[in-house]
Design goal:
This protein is α+β, with helices and mostly antiparallel strands. It contains nine helices and seven strands. The protein has a single domain, classed as Transferase(Phosphotransferase), domain 1 (Orthogonal Bundle), CATH 1.10.510.10. The radius of gyration is 17 Å and the shape is globular. GO terms for molecular function: ATP binding; protein serine/threonine kinase activity.
């Protein structure tokens, strides 16, 4: 967490104020956000899902945090609504909980740390994954959860098959972005920078029927 908190800091990552070492553990002193909820709780309070305007605002901030992590050589590895804090009035978002994190490397990861439902299909099929495509997969699962109100996959078999069932009408741009992020082939997924330039992130016009 120190690598992502050294100046210049990202406003969308929870700030580490100080830390000290105990005989068997470390104590981290983190900034306090008030009032705030984790994003999963916030969605429930909004009726289970967010409208696209608010989901887009949240996703933009998540992308900013993840690009900062990538630039510092850090893989979060547990991106999900429960690890995003949102200030309930301003809707400012902060990424938290780097407990599953690792350093970014070019070679595949052979060990998965994170939340099962957000794991990419290549992990279940090949027992390995690359940092960038795995992060983008978790962004896709998170975005689906935000706009639909439930997880796209709940079992290993569903993740491997990758069949998406949308619960409501979404804009065509939102639909296409989710499908792109959740491409079964990791080489077909966008990069974080490509997501930032996607039409849905920039604006939202047409409807998917």
């Amino acid at each position: 967490m120190m690598k992502v908190n050294s100046p210049p800091r990202c406003p969308n990552i929870l700030r580490l104020l100080d830390w000290f070492e105990l005989p068997t553990s470390y104590v981290l002193i983190l900034e306090l956000l008030d009032p705030c909820q984790d994003l999963a709780e916030f969605c429930e309070a909004q009726g289970g899902s967010l409208d696209e305007k608010l989901a887009r605002k949240v996703t933009r901030q998540l992308l900013k945090a993840l690009c900062h992590c990538e630039g510092r050589g850090v893989l979060h590895r547990d991106v999900k609504p429960e690890n995003l804090l949102i200030q309930t009035q301003s809707h400012k978002v902060k990424l938290i909980d780097f407990g599953c994190g690792d350093l970014v490397k070019d070679s595949p990861y052979m060990y998965f740390a994170g939340t099962y439902e957000y794991a990419p299909p290549e992990w279940f099929k090949e027992k390995e994954y690359q940092a960038g495509p795995a992060t983008v997969w978790s962004v896709g699962v998170t975005l689906f959860h935000l706009v639909c109100g439930f997880l796209p996959f709940t079992t290993r078999e569903e993740i491997i098959q990758g069949q998406l069932h949308f619960s409501k009408q979404l804009s065509l741009e939102c639909y296409e972005l989710i499908r792109w992020c959740l491409s079964l082939n990791p080489e077909d997924r966008p990069t974080l920078e490509q997501i930032k330039l996607h039409p849905w992130i920039q604006s939202c016009r047409r409807k998917h029927k």
